[in-house]
């Protein structure tokens, strides 16, 4: 009898994460809530499974969980369509609106081998059809100058654009009354990690638990990330309509290897809510991951807040509550041992425990071929270990251990984890520490081994997660 082999398309196709049906995807772009839907564009190559010929692909969702792939939003013309943002021009400052329709505007980088400049496109039908404008609105004659993040800043009554000079490790802020005329306001950087080029800046306000507003400045880095390849850093601080003033040192947003180019949604119905997602990949190996035909997936959407870290503050991320809709069968875990997982579904695990200084919780994911990945949590550290086995033996930078220190103090440790067909997202300390990693098992993961030494589980719940609608269109 011939050996039965699962093709990567079946083995690794995400069950609850967004991935386009075929071909290459990288950064999320143009995230905006409009026409009653969450809109998501992304860097997309409709001609192949590696980076090139950048277009903006597009998907929509009623709930940030179930995504439907749509037609391409922005096509490559005499330049490629690199990363950028989208937002509603409520007051029609751009003049693109004709007769009172909602004016959706996208601002993105037009890329040629010689120049990167910022362009606009608009849509008057909720993102179905986009009208790219032929002339750049910001061209400073640079080869590398990209990834505009534009938002309306009410206190200074102007549009703000954060845009990056990758090799100078600088984010330049511009202001504009009408999205067409831009004036430089300030430069931030070099600062923090500068071991690679800077990409995809993001600047947005978030509240802490006392209701105080902080501004977050985020920038991606490639290479120079915490465990090799790309990474993402942020500062908390103030923004006065001209300058961002950092009040914390730079910190990593994610301590795994696969969370890049995160972008937040514009114009969410709840104005104080901040939600982002990222490309779950790393430029070190993104073009060689073992899913030929389709490469690139998004992380789950996460809600942001500023939380205490001892005496200091940090950015914390939690999976959005809407994900609870995916929960199917629930199981309580009471003692160490093996729990059966259904590889046709994703899995969510939520767990709290107390432990001594030397105690630890160890979770190991097994396929029929053996252990495929491990998560360890003790009172000081969170660790994720990716083994050195096929099919990723030759994927440079894949195998290894990714770890992060936890904040000091709490008696009760918490862990919230999502496992999908080729990914693991682990949130500890109520989202203060996150590790997001791709995980390519040799065969479907069928068992979770739960092991705890000198630790008492207080509560542990495991859910199978099944989408009740499309999360991408399968070819
Ligand atoms: C980040 C990035 C951006 C650029 C886009 C090109 O991953 O390199 O800086 O706009 O991807 O696809």
Structural class: mainly beta
Quaternary organisation = single chain
Q: What percentage of residues falls in helices of 4 or more residues?
A: under 10%
Give the end-to-end Cα distance, rounded to a whole number of Å. Answer: 29 Å
Low-confidence stretches: none
| Strand segment tally | 32
**Rg, Å, rounded:** 22 Å
Mean pLDDT: 94
Described by the principal axes of the CA atoms, the overall outline is globular
Beta content: over 45%
Please summarize the sheet with the most strands: 10 strands, antiparallel
Ligand inventory reads: beta-D-fructofuranose
Give the topology.
Elements: H1 8-11, E1 23-34, E2 37-45, E3 55-61, E4 68-74, E5 80-88, E6 104-111, E7 116-123, E8 131-132, E9 146-153, E10 158-165, E11 170-176, E12 183-188, E13 197-207, E14 213-222, E15 231-239, E16 244-246, E17 251-252, E18 260-264, E19 275-279, E20 294-295, E21 302-309, E22 312-319, E23 327-332, E24 337-340, E25 346-367, E26 370-378, E27 381-386, E28 400-405, E29 412-420, E30 423-428, E31 433-438, E32 445-465
Parallel strand pairs: 1-20
Antiparallel strand pairs: 1-2, 2-3, 3-4, 5-6, 6-7, 7-8, 9-10, 10-11, 11-12, 13-14, 14-15, 15-16, 15-17, 18-19, 19-21, 21-22, 23-32, 24-32, 25-26, 25-29, 25-32, 26-27, 27-28, 29-30, 30-31
Bound molecules: beta-D-fructofuranose.
Residues 26-27, 43, 54, 82-83, 109, 146-147, 199-200, 261 line the site of beta-D-fructofuranose (FRU).
């Amino acid at each position: 009898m011939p050996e039965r082999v699962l093709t990567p398309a079946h083995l690794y196709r995400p069950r609850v994460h967004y991935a386009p049906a075929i071909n290459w995807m990288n950064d999320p772009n143009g995230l905006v809530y409009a026409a009653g839907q969450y809109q998501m564009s992304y860097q997309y190559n409709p001609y192949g499974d590696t980076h090139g010929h950048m277009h903006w692909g597009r998907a929509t969702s009623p709930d940030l969980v179930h995504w439907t792939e749509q037609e391409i939003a922005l096509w490559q013309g005499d330049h490629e369509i690199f990363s950028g943002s989208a937002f509603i021009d409520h007051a029609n400052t751009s003049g693109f609106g004709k007769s009172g329709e909602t004016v959706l505007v996208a601002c993105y980088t037009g890329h040629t081998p010689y120049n990167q400049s910022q362009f606009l496109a608009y849509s008057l039908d909720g993102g179905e059809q986009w009208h790219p404008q032929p002339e750049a609105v910001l061209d400073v004659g640079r080869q590398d100058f990209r990834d505009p993040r534009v938002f309306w800043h009410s206190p200074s009554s102007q549009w703000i654009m954060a845009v990056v000079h990758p090799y100078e490790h600088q984010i330049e802020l511009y202001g504009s009354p009408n999205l067409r005329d831009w004036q430089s306001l300030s430069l931030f950087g070099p600062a923090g990690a500068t071991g690679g080029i800077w990409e995809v800046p993001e600047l947005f306000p978030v509240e802490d638990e006392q209701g105080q507003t902080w501004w977050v400045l985020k920038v991606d880095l490639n290479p120079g990330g915490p465990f090799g390849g790309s990474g993402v850093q942020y500062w908390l601080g103030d923004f006065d309509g001209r300058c961002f003033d950092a009040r914390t040192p730079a910190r990593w947003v994610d301590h795994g290897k696969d969370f890049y180019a995160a972008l937040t949604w514009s114009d969410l119905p709840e104005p104080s809510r901040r939600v982002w997602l990222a490309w779950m990949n790393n430029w070190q190996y993104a073009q060689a991951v073992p899913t030929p035909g389709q490469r690139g997936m998004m992380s789950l959407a996460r809600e942001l807040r500023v939380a205490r870290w001892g005496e200091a503050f940090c950015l914390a991320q939690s999976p959005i509550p809407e994900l609870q809709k995916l929960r199917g069968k629930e199981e309580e875990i009471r003692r160490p041992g093996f729990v059966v997982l259904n590889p046709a579904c994703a899995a969510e695990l939520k767990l709290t425990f107390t432990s001594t200084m030397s105690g630890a919780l160890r979770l190991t994911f097994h396929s029929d071929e053996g252990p495929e990945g491990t998560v360890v949590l003790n009172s000081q550290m969170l660790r994720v270990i990716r083994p050195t086995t096929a099919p990723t033996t030759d994927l440079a930078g894949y195998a290894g251990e990714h770890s992060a220190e936890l904040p000091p103090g709490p008696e009760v440790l918490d862990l919230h984890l999502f496992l999908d067909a080729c990914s693991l997202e682990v949130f500890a300390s109520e989202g203060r520490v996150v590790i997001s990693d791709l995980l390519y098992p040799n065969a479907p993961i069928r068992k979770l081994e739960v092991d705890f030494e000198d630790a008492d589980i207080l509560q542990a719940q495991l859910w199978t997660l099944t989408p009740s609608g499309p999360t991408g269109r399968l070819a």
